Amino acid sequence: MRKIILIIIIISGFTSCYTYQRFIREIEPKITNRIGEIDISIRSVIQFDGYYQSYTTREDNPEYISEFNQMFFEDGTCATNFFFEKNATKEDISKNMLENIEYRVTNRNDTIWGGNWGIYRVQNDTIIVQVFVKGDIIVPWSFYERRYKIINKTTLEFIDYKPLLIGEREYTEEELRIMSSNIERTQLSFHPVESLPPSNPWFKKKRWAWKNESDWEKYMQSLKR
Fold it and tell me: Does pTM surpass 0.85?
């Protein structure tokens, strides 16, 4: 029995490594956003001390309500689709987001938060987010882009979504139509908070995610302190 478990672990580890290498090989030519490219003057355009949130319904099920959260950091990273503790009130979150956000423990015993993480850039009145979804045995590797129009510092409007990873399932025309009707012109409103959670996406340790090697080296050194 132990031998079988050991074999499964070895195969799973090999598969994950192979998938990661393939993932990077496929996405690297398409990456347009890197950590360290954001200018500090971006604070005049969007907010960082909190999160943006929207609620959407579905055309095929009007009673269905979906909550979506988006948070930006000054280093160019962003957290997408994170959740709060079930009993947390808006007031609790506003006073201490760090203590009222959902965390999870990885198979390496790392405590992390955030559903999906990405890197963003601002182009004129548009925020372009590229999201890197780390795959495992259950969740497939994924790479996609979301765009928002900046209405003002406290309001964003969703523009579109585009899958970028080769091999992702093709959507049918009907699925794309429903997706568009669900999220087009959806607005996200800003909610200020205190005690912000840290920016700790899995790819922050990877050289390919950074614009400058020196900045990446400084970050890696900071983790050893």
Answer: no
